[in-house]
Amino acid sequence: MATVENLPSPSSERPIGFGRLKRKEDARFIRGQGTYLDDIRLPGMVHGAILRSPYAHARIVSIDTSRALAHPNVAAVVTAKDLETLGLAWMPTISYDTQAVLAGDKVRFQGQEVAFVIATDEYSANDALQLIDVEYEPLPAIVNARKALDPDAPLIRDDKAGQRDNLASPTWEAGDEEATNKAFAEADTVVSRDIIYPRCHPAPLETCGIVADFDPKTGQLNIWNGNQAPHAHRTVYAHVAGLAEHMIRIRCSDIGGGFGNKVPVYPGYVCAIAGSIVAGVPVKWIENRTENLVSTGFARDYVMRAEMCSKDGKITGLRVDVIADHGAFDSTAQPTKFPAGFFHIVCGSYDLQASHVKVKAVYTNKAPGGVAYRCSFRITEAVYLVERMVDALALEMKADPIDLRMRSFIAPGQFPYETTTGWTYDSGNYAETMKVAMDIAGYDDLRREQREKRDRGELMGIGVAFFTEGVGAGPRKHMDILGLAMNDGADLRVHPSGKAVVSISAQTQGQGHETTFAQIVAEELGIPPEDIEVRHGDTDKSPYGLGTYGSRSTPVSGAAVAVVSRKVRDRARLIAATMLETRPEDLAWEKGRWYVKGDPEKGAMIEDIAVRAYSGEPMPEGMEGGLDAQVIYDPPNLTYPYGAYIAVVDVDPDTAQVTIRRFIAVDDCGVRINPMIVDGQIHGGLAEGVGIALMELLSFDEEGNCLNSSFMDYLIPTALECPDFELGETVTPCPHHPLGAKGVGESPNVGSPPAIVNAVIDALHETHGVDHIDMPCTPARVWAAMQGRAEPPQ
Amino acid sequence: MTINVSMTVNGTQVSHEIEPRMLLVHFIRETLELTGTHWGCDTSNCGACVVRIDGQPVKSCTILAAMCDGHEVATVESLEVDGQLDPIQMGFHERHALQCGFCTPGMLMTTRALLDENPDPTDHEIRVAISGAICRCTGYKNIVSAVRWAAEHEAATANREG
Question: The pTM is what?
Answer without folding.
Answer: 0.97
